[in-house]
Amino acid sequence: MSSRIEQIIGEIEEYVDSCKFQPLSTTKIVVNKEEIEELLRELRLKTPDEIKRYQKIINNKDAILEDAQTKADALIADAQARAQELVTQHEIMQKAYAQANDTINAANKQAQEILDSATQDANSIRLSAITYTDDMMANIGSVLNTTLEDAGVKYKTFIDSLQSCLDVVNHNRQELAPQTAQAAAITGSYHDNDGAKDDDDDLLDDLGEN
Which domain of life does the UniProt lineage start with (predicted)? Predict the structure, then answer.
């Protein structure tokens, strides 16, 4: 059964696959910022729990080894007890010692096999957990990198468009500068003429009164 973080990664991949390509591009796509951020937000929330879960699996190695050691110790103790019983019960001491040694050797061998098997199982579980966690982080990194690249291209295109508009406006103002200066000069001339006319009218008014 897949974990929630695997499901989220699958949803992100499906969402990216469903996005439309940007005009005149076969590699860049248009994403909905809110949707991708919601998926990434849930991914960030779930990731620590997933890592803790796999860390717990890794930590189980110690428990497996401890259990194996306990079983091995119990086997050795039982073998020693049986060996002592054989020595006590049998009249032929040499045979009793031989049987006791064989029993102890067999128990030691079986205990070592249990320890070796437990160590191998624990290392295999640990390696699988680490590999899965690394693959999961790689998928997350790939999705984040793709999202950052798409956002960078989108905002760069927007800034370039604004700069182009500004360049056109500045160029048009430069072309209009001579005409603007001429218009300002003419307007100033009109104001001077109006002032002289007003002075003449005042003079005529004074003569008429006299």
Answer: Bacteria
